[in-house]
Amino acid sequence: MQQPALNRYQRTKIRVREKRSQWKEYFYRAGDLTAFMLRFFREAVKPPYEFREILYQCYLVGYKSTFLIGLTAFIMGAVLTIQTRPSMAAFGAISMIPGMVAVSVVREIGPVITAIICCGKIGSRMGAELGSMRVTEQIDAMEVSAINPFHYLVVTRTIATTLMVPLLSIFADLIAFIGSELAMNIHDSTSFRHFFQAAMVHLEFIDIFPAIIKTFFFGYVIGIIGCYKGFRARRGTESVGIAANSAVVASSLAVFIIDMLAAQITDLL
């Protein structure tokens, strides 16, 4: 039998019910992620400490990402110098380019670009890796074998990203300086020593310290969100791709939110 057509009131009621269920699902996931993040601190202090796995994850996160981050930082420093030189030359302020590049790269561009690259490369890998382990029931097998999968899989990866992202950010800053110095030599002749000294003169403690501190938070959210998306993947191979994609999107959004809060706090200081 043909279903009777719904009137306007019934259609509005259905839409309200669907909207309400979407908000309930959103708050449930937000609460589950918060509990997952807090569980990390409880599990991280419990023995046994998987130092070998942490070192291996540091190798995957740090060493395996140096070429991509170095290449991006080099291009970033060179392009920033090339694009700003005409404007600075119009005001006779070419000597200010090293300081401008140093402050821009150290305070914002270096840490944020490094974190975004790590979101795409590391966050997606962790989401896909743990998602495939969930789909193939490897995590369930670890629980049956009396092995704590959260401690072995999540804690080690999150510690690795928390430690390596700051180091990668410092590495990116140095490579960006090299790219900027080489770009300046297209029109001007300057040594790297002179460029580095001119850049360091304009950097203060308030520029360097907050930039390094926020990279620890960047590394933490990249690792914990990537692991969460993979750890909570549903059954089916499609969920692996969804976990990897959502890990990149959620961790990138978290990086921008943390960066905004860090900028506000630094401005108050």
Short description:
The protein contains 9 helices and no strands. It is mainly α. Helix 2 packs parallel to helix 6 (149-184).
Would you write up a description of this structure?
With 269 residues, the chain is mostly helical. The chain has one domain. 83% of the residues lie in helices and 0% in strands. The protein is built from nine helices and no strands. It has helices spanning 8-44, 51-61, 66-90, 97-135, 138-144, 149-184, 192-201, 205-231, 238-268. α2 (51-61) runs parallel beside α6 (149-184), α4 (97-135) packs parallel to α8 and α8 (205-231) packs antiparallel against α9 (238-268).
Task: Set out the fold topology.
Layout: H1 8-44, H2 51-61, H3 66-90, H4 97-135, H5 138-144, H6 149-184, H7 192-201, H8 205-231, H9 238-268
What is the string of SSEs from the N terminus onward? HHHHHHHHH
Largest sheet: none
What fraction strand? under 5%
- Kindly, what is the distance between the CA atoms of the first and last residues, rounded to a whole number of angstroms? 70 Å
Q: What structural class do you assign from the helix and strand content? A: mainly alpha
How many domains comprise the coordinates? 1
What would you call the shape?
Answer: elongated
Q: What Rg is obtained from the alpha carbons, in whole angstroms? A: 23 Å
